[in-house]
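The following block was generated as part of the benchmark described in Methods. Ligand: K7E.
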Amino acid sequence: MKNKILAVIATIFLGTVVLVSCKPKSSGDAVSGDAAQKAYVAPGKYDEFYNFVSGGFSGQMSVYGLPSGRLLRVIPVFSVDPEKGWGYSEETKPMLNTSHGFVPWDDLHHVNMSQTNGEIDGRWVFANGNNTPRVARVDLKTFKTAEIIEIPNSAGNHSSPFITENTEYVIAGTRFSVPADYSDGDVPINTYKQNFKGHISFIKVGKEGEMDIAFQLLTPGVNFDLSHAGKGKSHGWFFFSTYNTEQANTLLEVNASQKDKDFIMAVNWKKAEEYIKAGKGKKQAVRYAHNTWDEKTHTAKSEIKTEVLVLDAMALKDICYMIPCPKSPHGCDVDPTGEYIVGSGKLAALIPVFSFDKLQAAIAKKQFDGDYEGIPVLKYESVLHGEVKKPGLGPLHTEFDGKGNAYTSFFVSSEIVKWDIKTLKVLDRVPTYYSIGHLMIPGGDSRKPFGKYLVAYNKITKDRYLPTGPELAQSAQLFDISGDKMKLILDYPTIGEPHYAQGAPADLIRNNGQYKFYKLDTNQHPYVAKGEKENKVVREGNKVHVYMTSIRSHFAPDNIEGIKLGDEVYFHVTNLEQDWDVPHGFGIKGANNAELLIMPGETTTLKWVPDRVGIFPMYCTDFCSALHQEMSGYVRVSPKGSKVPISYSLGTNLPAVK
Ligand code: K7E
Ligand code: CUA
């Protein structure tokens, strides 16, 4: 994002604007005297809000407390994580499976929390994998990734995941239009206009959160950038910002910035549902992975699906409408009432605000300016509520406080501008350090914003923290927005590049029935050992399964012999503890796929292929008790063809076997 935007903006503005003059010099004076007190959360006290922040190219999501800015957890989503063995343990590997095979990294830009009646409900957070198109669901009872679905017919899943007000759908709009997976993709690149098409996926969300692609809309070949669902009166609609409506296939920084206006595509998804019901969708052959985590077996399963239902939005004229929007719109945000739709043209010097009522009237009166590949183009003025004049340079994203105010981030002029949604008057502006991308108010894209804090997520950190070589932490800045003027109260570094974020009152999530541990008696892992009577070591050909348990402060068994070179050893470790916050770890020398961290009541498997003969210590990697250092054991590895039988023990010295 930052390079792309910088390049484009530099191209457009360089002649007229001196970029450096826009950059604020220092925030020393900008911080008010009582800032420290406002961000202070006393030791042992909880924060007021949870804050879920995308990790960008780290593929992770991080969880902070607000207003303290304390990092509480990093959740691996489209990434492996040695802290938790995520993506390394046998149980978690299938979560990262795709139709391209195992893809343990991605670029996570947007997080979106589940809603009920347009309000954040604290059940799940969804996230997008941009590069190898995927949508993930994180369960807030466990703060773990519970499901990942791959998106076919897409490339660059940027316009995602955004949800409808009762979490009916999570949508995923393709950033790159490309030839569909079900068509012949072996075409010259310069046939973009004929062969490249867009697909927008409507992913149905079930009662338990389970995802399934209900249908896809086939659209003209443009780039979908961002989106938001309608709410309240506009529930039933979705709004997508688009760029490269020029359909250029080279040097996009120039060629995709030709037109004075691109589009916001308004989608009547209730209408699309009607067409699907009437059988207008076409089944197309595709391949995509659907990965689900089973909390009973503590194991993920990956399934490849082979079919998707596609509805041609260009042939069916009354699903989609194009709203002209100045200069490559990026953010597309809907105010809490559902009436106002804000398009942020990243190369525009104004912010257009559209009216949902006017949109309905214009469609009824057919106030069209022709069509764009079969999709009616509405007259700009017929849909426009008004423009915020001279707000700043490079508007990107807008959030709302629920009191009639909007807050827009400006990348180029590096500031946040507060404006009145009805009168479109600019009310306040504050500098950000530096070059803000997204911004977030807890609940700020829902019907019920909490409106007390605003966080800026910045692209450039430069001199804000102690230097750490060429690579610097990216950063967030917390503002108090309870008064008329925005007040900077805290800076804190983030994990990876923060894009979108969400926030929710702490109690909503704290009291959502979160797990403190997994119940051992409901553990249905096929290799569980529910007590030390169930420990065993079983050889099946060259595979050896160790049914192991851990409890303060020993493993059982802790002496294992009879392993031979050429064996694959599977340590299935069940943590027998039944109390909050007593994980055990497991590591064995030479293992080249990390270590394990096992929660109470959980079973987790490490695959180990010894590469030499000898004695291999194993030990607990998490300081669990006063005798944690004693929590260890030995595995004997013998040469291939050795006659040493499988044996295992705990607390007894077995008679030596030659
Ligand atoms: Cu503006 Cu990818 Cu949401 Cu980043 S995007 S800033
Ligand atoms: Cu178990 Cu340390």
